[in-house]
Structure prediction request, 246 residues.
Amino acid sequence: MAPDLLARIKRQGAVPRHIAIIMDGNGRWARERHLPRPLGHRAGMKAVREVVEGAIAAGVEVLTLFAFSEENWQRPPTEISALMELLEEYIAAEVEELRQQGVRVHVLGDRARLGPGARAAVERVEWETRDGARLVLNLCISYSSRAEIARAARLLAEDVLKGTKRLEEIDEEAVQERLYTAPWRDPDLLIRTSGERRLSNFLLWQLAYTELYITPLLWPDVTRRELFEAILDYQRRDRRFGKVTV
Ligand code: IPE
Ligand code: IPE
Ligand code: MG
Prediction:
């Protein structure tokens, strides 16, 4: 449970209100055990449960998880179907628990590319958790940041063509309002597991001033303890947003 770390977090001060996570390393976790890659993804489901519960315990308001990128559609069909089946399985197994925990789930990304089963599961979890008020859980599925920004540009161009927006009104706020993440503030903290030091097309706009935390742990090995360690590290950062602190 790591109550020691949780107590330190509460003593140390403000908790990041929005945490984003690039959940990486399932394949390597499986390879280390001479297992097929899908078993690494399956093991990763437990880590999702851990960080959701950890986020609730710490008082985080929004948790945004990168589960499947648009680029991941280029993986072998067997791996893609295993991932889609796991998504459906995760939702079927967790929806009631999520609802009871007060978690509200949103799925961000190009859902038109999902198969009918996955799309139905996504719609179901969004609907059944719609009253959740403790934690927003954003699952980024078939998501890429550049596609999200291009989509925002297209939507704004449409507004101008229709005459509902003037060209002078296209500013940073107007773009932000057309991103999938429009309802929420930018992440305060980004965690990436498996030691990779890149963003892999995740939230490029939103991460402008986000604090980065990279851990060598592979995603299936992550527990709430790791989330708490990341929060403690975040609390020691000096966020300046380009200004001077005295
Ligand atoms: C992250 O694990 C899950 C997805 C991208 C769907 P990976 O499958 O990328 O695992 P590695 O990076 O190959 O170890
Ligand atoms: C990023 O991980 C996408 C997700 C975690 C869903 P990848 O494993 O796809 O990224 P790269 O290929 O290492 O950049
Ligand atoms: Mg990877």
Notes: The chain has a mean pLDDT of 98. The chain has one domain: 14-143+186-230.
